[in-house]
Design a protein that fits this description.
The complex is a heterotrimer of chains A (222), B (93) and C (578). With 222 residues, chain A is mostly helical. Chain A has helices at 23-51, 60-63, 66-91, 95-125, 138-145, 150-186, 196-221, and strands spanning 128-129, 132-133. Classes of the chains: A mainly alpha (222), B mainly alpha (93), C mainly alpha (578).
Chain lengths: 222, 93, 578
């Protein structure tokens, strides 16, 4: 479809000056716009429910393991840096470093998801579930001691697991796509002239990181 | 595009250091500082926005894109704010 | 990819095709099927309302859980209204407008070989089909189809013990998440294609209004559908894993669902009308043999509607007990949105004024659209005023309004658009005489069906009401209900004319030639139907799309692709370097 002579990293615009962005990248930006609205629905629901909650909302560090998640946040930020390093490497034509940084990103991303899995397991074990809390559990005791408002207990679990769960789902999708990009990079699929795949998956990856930055603050800190 | 990246490549490690430092600062403000809850929320949201902006501008290279693309990216944000503000106003009248 | 070289296998060519034209036609057949399903559901609703408690002819084939002995049960009736609304909005009108015509027209009208992401386009179609089948499956699961209305208001929809439908309600959520994904993939494709793949000379203000409308619609879909997906996922979690988002008994907020749903729902309303407006603009200019009146104001009106469409959703919630300040705000914005809509109506009339009118079938349907949309739009202004709305909320007045804009508006436009682009899709014209018969029958019975509903609504008949004769104050209106039902049956029967004409013309229609309507669009320079890849080399565009009756040429139309001696080649933008 694109002319053989055209630079793949340039837009195919013929009619007039467009956005100066080639198809895949423009498509990804447009898709990220819809992702913003998807997370608006989930995060917005959380903010609205918290505002209108019948009782006081639980302090985050009563139930959640903030230090563990703090480390996890650090891991995700590192993965964003390794991703952008991969991008910089191929922009310089360094295919070897591209593959290495991509692998680092995959490992860091997978670690993030795994830590989140451990966190979920621990929380559910303690009795904190999407439906609220289970009777006789650690969390139920906290409610009995008055450290956690009973009325908001259910909402807290609902919003927490839905938001972080869908973020984790996005990270998982990102890791799967990154594995594909990594394998392609090992086979020499990207060159200094054409590294569209790296740039496009990078945009997605940074966006997911950006969502986590917001989530970490409003779920774990406020 | 390739040339842009070479000419104007930000110092990624510096951005990383910023993000790391801001995260530490956030945790400190959230749990260690004896300040009012409302002030805390404002500060935390400000720090989160700062971090998000760093990621968008430098890692996603928005700083080096055309202003038209930057405008396009901004379109969903007011919609998100409108939805949340309208629904919140249900609880303050 | 060139136009003449095509050695794909049958499956790649007609089933798992990545060609935008085939995908558009696939959408056409699938959504016409769902239109028929929605129509059949409506007929059952009308039977119950016109003849409450009487056995429905042919209803004996339904199981005893739906209609024992052909008499519709209340549980089945609420499933009927829910599924009629859901199918018509999400699986008939929306895919007919966007799935069919955005796919089919955008590349052809802007001079591109195909969409920017053909594989994604194919995925979009199959996801939509999957969504439709999941929704249809609702009728066959235990407890039957969803029962909370097409808006699925919580907590009725969130708690199976309240609605009585468990699996059906879950399938509703799953289906709409799939449909959301499909629409987002489609929108990404349409937006990228329009921005990046326009032919040389096809500047923004030479785009046909249909492309403008579809482009803006794609932006609305891109930003609105994910909100519905998010809300549907939360509703699904409420039903399955016991979260409490929408359950007030556990601290959740029922109003949150309404806010999320209508924040999606109102842009959705414009998704359902903007493409119709765009295509009607093309057809009206063609049928009037005059340039469209106020091209730029049409573009700005589309953009204005799209922008205002985001800040009016609260007018669906005036009686929900919402913040009154918020209610007044929404009332004002809703009234403002009538302005760009009125601009469009005046521009269509201005186009037709003193035109050399050709009353071909698409033109008749387009004029029908303008008239019916005006009536529907005017009743919309009634509802925008909060005090009036409180009286007519959830009555048949609303039902009349929605059908005037969705049937009278969108569907008339679609009959016009399908007839107009049918020759390009299949190489043959639909029969002119039977097209006119269909138009007039539909026009008459449409008005006989839906206009009296305004009266019922003012009289207080509630929508989704199972049996109007239960209420003494509605008993005097029962003859009107029966009259509406007879009209509705005849309206449905009139559609047989369209379907038979559609299918018969596939084989026996008059051969169309390249440009049967003497239109200016790029697509008419191609053979009908165009080959895979559309053009060998993309055409060059020399002018806007509405140069009818131009003094420069002796014909009364001047296509966008035709080069006159006075035309200069468009400046090829140098691909900008840094």
């Amino acid at each position: 479809m694109t002319d053989a002579t055209a630079n793949a990293m340039q837009p195919p615009a013929r009619a007039e000056r467009g956005l100066d962005v080639y198809n895949n990248k423009l498509g990804m930006w447009v898709f990220l716009g819809s992702e913003v609205m998807f997370f608006t629905a989930l995060i917005g629901a959380y903010i609205i429910l918290r505002f209108g909650a019948p009782g006081e909302w639980a302090k985050p560090n009563v139930v959640l393991a903030v230090p563990l998640t703090g480390v996890n946040t650090f891991i995700l930020i590192c993965s964003s840096v390794s991703m952008v390093k991969a991008f910089a490497a191929i922009a310089d034509g360094n295919r070897k470093m591209l593959s290495r940084w991509l692998l680092a990103t995959i490992v860091l991303g997978a670690t993030f998801v795994s830590v989140q899995g451990v966190e979920y397991w621990k929380l559910v074990h303690e009795g904190f579930t999407p439906a609220g809390y289970t009777d006789g559990s650690h969390v139920a005791e906290l409610v009995a001691q008055g450290k956690l408002a009973a009325a908001t207990g259910g909402l807290y679990g609902s919003t927490f697991f839905t938001m972080t769960g869908f973020h984790g789902f996005h990270v998982t999708c990102g890791v799967i796509c990154l594995i594909y990009v990594w394998i392609k990079s090992l086979r020499g699929g990207y060159t200094q002239q054409d590294y569209r795949g790296v740039e496009v998956i990078g945009l997605y990856w940074h966006f997911v990181d950006l969502v986590w930055i917001i989530l970490f603050t409003i779920v774990y800190l406020i | 595009m390739a040339t842009t990246a070479q000419h104007q490549r930000p110092n990624y490690v510096l951005i990383w250091a910023y993000l790391f430092g801001l995260t530490i600062l956030e945790v400190l403000f959230a749990f260690e500082m004896p300040i009012s809850r409302n002030l805390k929320i404002v500060i935390l949201l400000f720090l989160a926005a700062w971090k998000a902006l760093l990621v968008a501008l430098y890692f996603m290279h928005l700083k080096f894109e055309s202003s038209r693309l930057r405008l396009m990216v901004l379109i969903p944000l007011p919609l998100a704010v409108i939805l949340v503000l309208a629904a919140i106003s249900e609880h303050v009248w | 990819m060139s136009a003449h070289h095509d050695d794909r296998s049958f499956i790649r060519k007609y089933i798992f095709s990545t060609d935008h034209k085939i995908i558009g036609i696939q959408f056409l057949f699938v959504s016409l099927f769902f239109l028929l399903v929605g129509g059949l559901l409506a007929m059952q609703i009308r039977w119950q309302l016109g003849f409450p408690g009487r056995p429905m002819p042919g209803g004996g084939i339904l199981p005893a859980t739906m209609a024992p002995g052909g008499v519709i049960l209340p549980e089945y009736y609420i499933q009927l209204v829910t599924m009629h609304g859901t199918f018509m909005v999400f699986f008939a009108i929306m895919p007919l407008l966007v799935g069919v015509f955005a796919n089919y027209l955008i590349p052809l009208k802007i001079g591109a070989h195909d969409m920017a992401f053909p594989t994604l386009n194919m995925a979009s179609f199959w996801t939509a089909l999957l969504a439709g089948l999941i929704m249809l499956a609702g009728f066959f699961v235990p407890d039957g189809a969803p029962r909370a209305g097409w808006t699925s208001y919580a907590p009725l929809s969130a708690r199976p013990d309240l609605s009585g439908a468990s699996y059906g309600q879950m399938l509703w959520c799953i289906s709409l998440v799939c449909l959301g994904l499909s629409s987002i993939l489609g929108s990404v494709n349409y937006i990228t294609t329009v921005i990046n793949l326009r032919a040389p000379g096809m500047t923004w203000f030479r785009l046909p209004l249909s492309v403008w409308a579809l482009f803006i619609t794609a932006i609305l879909g891109l930003l609105a559908l994910p909100v519905l997906s998010g809300a549907a996922i939360m509703l699904l979690f409420d039903q399955t894993i016991g979260t409490h988002f929408f359950d007030p008994a556990a601290g959740g907020q029922a109003l949150l669902w309404q806010h999320l749903f209508w924040f999606f729902g109102h842009p959705e309303v414009y998704i359902l009308i903007l493409p119709a407006m765009g295509m009607v603009s093309d057809i009206v200019a063609n049928g009037s043999r005059k340039p469209i009146f106020g091209y730029h104001s049409m573009v700005f009106a589309i953009t204005g509607i799209a922008f205002l469409g985001w800040i009016v959703w609260g007018h669906h919630m005036f009686v929900s007990g919402m913040n009154p300040t918020l209610g007044s705000t929404f009332m004002v914005t809703t009234m403002i949105i009538a302005v760009p809509s009125a601009i469009k109506v005046f521009n269509w009339m201005g186009t037709m004024w003193r035109g050399n009118l050709r009353f071909h079938v698409p033109m008749l349907n387009a004029i029908g659209f303008v008239a019916m949309f005006t009536i529907g739009g005017l009743s919309g202004v009634f509802m925008a005023a909060t005090p009036v709305d409180i009286h007519i909320h959830d009555t048949y007045f609303i039902v009349a309004h929605i059908h005037y804009v969705l049937f009278g508006g969108s569907l008339f436009a679609l009959f016009g658009a399908i007839t107009f682009w049918y020759p390009k899709m299949f190489g043959r014209l639909m029969n002119e005489f039977w097209g006119k018969v269909h138009f007039w029958l539909t026009m008459i019975f449409f008005n006989l069906t839906f206009f009296p509903m305004h009266i019922l609504g003012m009289g207080g008949e509630m929508r989704r009401l199972y049996d109007p004769t239960q209420y003494d104050f509605l008993k005097p209106y029962q003859p009107l209900n029966t009259f509406i039902s007879y009209s509705a049956f005849l309206l449905f029967a009139s559609q047989v004319v369209f379907f038979v004409n559609f299918l018969w013309s596939l084989k026996h229609g008059k051969a169309a030639g390249n440009n049967p309507w003497e239109d200016n669009g790029l697509e008419w320079s191609l053979p009908s139907p165009p080959a895979h890849g559309n053009w060998e080399t993309v055409p060059t565009v020399y002018r806007g799309p509405y140069e009818y009756s131009s003094p420069l040429v002796k014909e009364d139309y001047l296509p966008q692709y035709r080069k006159l001696d006075t035309d200069r080649e468009p400046a090829m933008t140098p691909v900008s370097g840094h």
